[in-house]
C-alpha cells in the first residue's frame, strides 16, 4: 500500500495524549491512529475496511457511497444483561440497572484489555455530541480497535478536528474505551462510570453497545450529568411542524426502541394538508434544558440516524429512503446479487439470488428472515430531505409538546393529553410497551419502560423521576404532555389506526392544543379529542372506528393499574410521592 500520513497527528491537549498513552500501554496495539474527520481520511478508512473484509462496497450506481457490513451472528442487538452502571453505591444506580463497584469493574475490564489490541490499530476518535458551540454540547473521545466503529461514529457524531477545537486545552471530555476482543458473549460488558464521565465497552461490535456517543454517553452518562447540571438527556425524537402560514411548533416524543421514532420524526403530512411541513431535528435523543424565557429547549446531540431497516419503505418513511440512498452503512440486511440491499418490508419484492444477513442463500421458502429484525442503516442526517435547519442550531428549539407512547395492542387510546406536568410525568413514568428486537429479550411481552429510558437511565430511576418533577420549577411555559398509541388492535388482531402519514392528524390536534385552538373532553385518564375535533380532510375514517380506538375499557385499565404496581414496588424507596398521588387519583376517577 502507498505510504500515507493519515492518523499520525496527535493533538496538543496534554490530558488527552496522556490518557491515550495509558490505554495504548495497556492494550498494546501495533499502532495508534488519531482520527481527524477529514474526507481524505474517510476514503482511506473505507478502502482499508474493504481490504480487511469488514465492509463490502455496494453497487455504487444504485447506492453511491454505501457499504455493507455483516456482524458476528451472536452480536446483533443491545445486551441489557451485560450493561452496567458503576457507581460508588449500589442505590445510586438503582433497582432497574445492573450495578458493579467501579474499582472491581475497572480491574476486570483493564485485565481484559491487557494486550487486547496486539496486532491491531487503536483508533482515537474525538467527537462532539451536539452542534458546535452549543452550551449543551459535550466532547467525547472514543478509543476503539474497530474500523467499523470509526466509520459509524463519523456519521453519528461531529467527529475529529471539530471536537478537538471545542475541547481546546480542557480536560473535560468523556473517556470511552472500546475493544471488540474476541466478540464472545461471555466477555461482553458495557460499563458506565458516570462519576468519572467514562465508559468501557468490550466484546461487542453492535452499534448500541459500541458507538459510545449514542446510548452510553448521550443517554446513560448524559442523564447522570443532566441531573448534576440541571438539564435532561432523553430518548426522544425532535420535530418541527410548520403550518402553511409559516408558524413553527416544536415537539419531542419518547417511544421505546423500534417503535417508530424515526418514522414519526420524518413524517410527511397527507396530501390533504397542502403547505404543512414536518422537518426533523432528531430521531432518537434529545438533550433539554430550561431557557431564560422559561421554555424547555432541546438539541439533538447526534449527527446521523442509526435506524432499523426492516419495515422502512416508501410508504412508511419516504424521507428515510432518500436519506439512506447514499453515504450509508448497512448492517445485517440482506444482500442482492447486483450489490443492493433488501429487508422485510422493502418496497421491492425479494430478488432471486439474495444472500441473507448471515451470508446464506435465501428464498421466501427459507423460513427465516432475510434481514435480521434489528438490522440497521447508519446515515448522515444531512442526507435527510426534511432536515430542519434548527438541527444545527446551538440554541436548540423551544418545545411546545412532549409525547409519550408505546406499542400497545390494548388499553391505550390513540391520543390523550395529561391534565398538567405532574400528571404528564406520571404518564411517562408508567409507559408500557411490547418488547421489540432492538434488545435481546422476549419479543412481544409488555414491559414498563418509564419515558422509554429503562435501558438508558444512568442513575436511580426514582431520582430520575424526581428530576423530571424538579425541572418544572425552572419552566414558566412548560411543554404540554401527551400520550399516543398507534398500535391498538381490534378483536381480530387488526390495527385500528392506519398510522404512517395519518399520524399527522394526531400531531395537528396536539399542536392546536398547545396553541389553545383545539377543544378536548375531560375523561378519567386525561383530555381527549372528540371525533369532530379531528381534521378528517381527505380521510375516510368512521366515527365508530375512532371511538374504538379511543375507548377507555374499565377491565383493561384495571389490569393496567395492577401491572403498574410492579414498577412502583421496584422503585418504592425513591418513588416521588406525586406519582403515588397521581395513581390514587386515577384509581378514584376510574
Ligand atoms: C436505538 C435503540 O438503536 O434504542 O436507538 O436501541
Ligand atoms: Mn433509541
Please characterize this protein's 3D structure.
The protein has 590 residues and is α/β, with parallel strands linked by helices. The chain has 3 domains: 14-54 and 75-229, Phosphoenolpyruvate Carboxykinase, domain 1 (3-Layer(aba) Sandwich); 234-302 and 389-589, Phosphoenolpyruvate Carboxykinase, domain 3, CATH 3.90.228; 305-383, Phosphoenolpyruvate Carboxykinase, domain 2 (Beta Complex). The protein is built from 16 helices and 31 strands. The strands form 7 sheets. Strands 1, 4, 5, 6, 7, 8, 9, 10 and 11 form a 9-stranded mixed beta sheet that branches. Strands 12, 13, 14, 15, 16, 17, 25, 26 and 29 form a 9-stranded mixed beta sheet that branches. The chain has a 5-stranded mixed beta sheet with strand order 2-3-19-24-18, with helices on one face. It binds oxalic acid and manganese (II) ion.
